[in-house]
Amino acid sequence: MPDSKEKWNTKYSSKSSFWTEPDQFLVDQVALLKEGSVLDFACGTGRNSIWLAKMGFEVTGADISDIGLLRLKVSAKESHVVIRTLEVDLTNELKLENLDPYDNIIINMYKPSQEILLMLPKLLNEGGVLLICTHNWKQVEAGKFKKEFCLMPNELIDIKWEMKLVKHSTFELDSGFYDGYVFSK
Fold this sequence. Notes:
Strand content: 25-35%
Helix content: 25-40%
Distance between the termini: 30 Å
Radius of gyration: 15 Å
Structural class: alpha/beta
């Protein structure tokens, strides 16, 4: 945890500005989310958290970086929204298994391990929605990311879990190549 926390704290401390607009896949799929609570998993500085809170969701931003979460708190105050923050190692199943369930979990620009992916349905209320959007294998082919950080073709479709696939998209933006998934429990 310290190495990863230090890495992300350094990143969030060294930049004076970050993206402020929510991820387009999230914006396009927001109607598929269930009303209520959202866990923004690996929220970083919270651009998606802020947007979701403005849309009326009860948002918890979870991240390993206390610096990222501090930036989120400042942005939330400036945006006049309330967001709960949770500093947690998102790679540690034991740290996650005691979380209360949410109506929705969103994961953007982060690829959880297979073990964490398999436990996510336990963190969802019945009828809950899981939205994941991150870089895909084309980023690897372009030499921009390591394979372990990118989704492979149909990677999440092939998972054996108690989730129903609602939507899957593979797309390209100016910032790279992505896969987006929406599942319901």
